[in-house]
Amino acid sequence: MSETVLKLSGIQKAYNHGKPNEVSVLRGADLAIVPGEVVALVAPSGAGKSTLLHIAGLLDTPDKGQVEIAGQEMTRLSDRRRTLARRADVGFIYQFHHLLPEFTALENITLPQLAAGKPRAEAEARARELLGQVGVEKRADHRPAALSGGEQQRVAFCRALANAPRLLLADEPTGNLDPDTSDRVFDALMALVRGTGLSALIATHNLELAARMDRVVRMDHGVVA
Ligand SMILES: Nc1ncnc2c1ncn2[C@@H]1O[C@H](COP(=O)(O)OP(=O)(O)OP(=O)(O)O)[C@@H](O)[C@H]1O
């Protein structure tokens, strides 16, 4: 049994290697998140939050350093095994909802479960339960275009949690919403995360939201402080 859900050690990442425009974004970033812990990642624009989240979520690989999820070292896995680990272990939420426009809210949450091999009835029941938890069960049969911005994000949260990941990574999850909506949608996200005991790393510019998480970490000159 591992004591960390996510452990990043000595992560280095540069873009445009060897070119005049080379930019060294991460310079030995370390971060450990324990089960059930919700951590705010705060940094100025361009400091490398998205880069760190992509590496933590196995969407990108570091130039140096280790990424462990639930005690398993991921950087040396084949691309295929890393993709499987990502699908099983990690849920992502972005600033924009990225829901599939031609499918209903319910279908958007059901589809990733079907792809993971779950029977349809079970997948739909879980989708309805998640929609209920974030207060949009009455919108289950609406397509994303017929939902408000806050409702779209709530559905995106449900989709991210549909396959019960160990780790949730969120990049400015309420950054597109007006302040009032942002607060309420953030409450819904926290209730969902707390209800499942999930671990989360949530990048935000909003210091009030950050203060409501268990711990705040900051990025400065390519390291996490
Ligand atoms: N694919 C890429 N190629 C070249 N440079 C990149 C690439 N992706 C990011 N960068 C650069 O790396 C730095 C960090 O980018 P990143 O998106 O991780 O920052 P961020 O902290 O998430 O910023 P924001 O808060 O504005 O989203 C920036 O200077 C950016 O221009």
Task: Provide a short characterization of the protein structure.
It comes from Limimaricola pyoseonensis. This is Lipoprotein-releasing system ATP-binding protein. This protein is 36% helix and 25% strand.
Structural overview:
The structure is a single chain. With 225 residues, this protein is an alpha/beta fold. The protein has a single domain, classed as 3-Layer(aba) Sandwich (Rossmann fold). Helix content is 36%, strand content 25%. The protein is built from seven helices and ten strands. The strands form two sheets. Strands 6-7-8-3-9-10 form a six-stranded mixed β-sheet, sandwiched between helices. It has a four-stranded antiparallel β-sheet with strand order 2-1-4-5, covered by helices on one side. α3 crosses α4 (120-133) and α5 runs parallel beside α6. The chain is globular.
List its traits.
225 residues; six-stranded mixed sheet; four-stranded antiparallel sheet; binds adenosine-5'-triphosphate; alpha/beta; Rossmann fold; 36% helix
Summarize the topology.
Elements: E1 6-15, E2 23-33, E3 38-42, H1 49-56, E4 64-69, E5 72-73, H2 79-89, E6 90-93, H3 105-115, H4 120-133, H5 149-161, E7 167-171, H6 179-196, E8 199-203, H7 207-211, E9 215-220, E10 223-224
Parallel strand pairs: 3-8, 3-9, 6-7, 7-8
Antiparallel strand pairs: 1-2, 1-4, 4-5, 9-10
Helix pairs in contact: 3-4, 3-5, 5-6
The protein binds adenosine-5'-triphosphate.
